[in-house]
Amino acid sequence: MVYARGAPGAANPPPPQMPTKIVNLYENPSTPAEALGVARDIIKGRVENIKGSVQFWPRARIEAGNWGGVQFLSPHLCEQFLELKRGKIFDTRPLSKVADIGPDGVGARTNFDRTDIPDAYAMTALWYHKTTVTQKMLAKWDTYIKAKRGKQKQAAGLWQQRGQLMIVTRARLNTVRCMSVRLNQKALGSLWIPCKPYSDKYSEKTLEKALCAYFNSTIGLLAILGDRSNKIPSYPQFSMHDLRRIPVPDFAALGETRVTALSTAFDTLCDFTLLPLPQIMQDETRLALDRVVTDALGIDPEVVANIRRELSREPSITGKPYEV
Hints:
The chain is α+β, with helices and mostly antiparallel strands. The protein contains 13 helices and 12 strands. Strands 4, 5, 6, 7, 8, 9, 10 and 11 form an 8-stranded mixed sheet that branches. A two-stranded antiparallel ribbon has the order 1-2. The chain has a two-stranded antiparallel sheet with strand order 3-12. The model is unreliable at 1-10 (pLDDT under 50).
């Protein structure tokens, strides 16, 4: 873009607010030479030679710290997450505004040891995330824990923060089934973090169930994955900061009937097996969950259907090249 100078003494126009070009490849180059060629095409703007998606994000988004354009190969998913976060699809709030989150797994591993035989306190934890075991929204703790020697005071403080609703902190997206589970009793987590919702209007139990149903629905998956730390897209590790900013329904604005519908969806489907994320299009349990969540949140079913289809094609989820 060229700016012409104005009349003598007139101020020059400001420089253009250049957007950021974001390129996501369908598949990684197979050789160093191929990688150099791709890099040259990107630098020189030869978009037609690039096998991937190209997005131009406004400078204001990037300056605001919004790097959502790198989260998905599909520009549709990137934009849908932005709409979700802005509350354009339904009224949302950051998870930190509706729930206490923590303690993290580092605290549990630092202050507790696992044990097969309970000590006098019979403390429990959901320690592992085995996708061959954790396949339903209703789950069980998997180990007893006891305070490490010299860590009794710290361990006691952490134990007071245990919860029943758990959110995953690490997940291999091509095998994971549940992004959140509700336990049969309160516990701590290692690869899971307790999430304890609060509200003056609804019980903790009701909101736990509603959130678990939401997190495992298609729109909930988009909410969780849209702001992940993206060092390894196929194996995200969610920090406390990542989890606190997940957009979730504004339950105060949602109304009792719809909150109850989400909670009831958990009760109805919690003991049904969820398929791995790459099979989201064939997952009858998740489709049934989507129908309830979509209706409760007042979302156009076509919007969710498009998101589900695009998630099923994402390389970071499938572990395969994007299907053009």
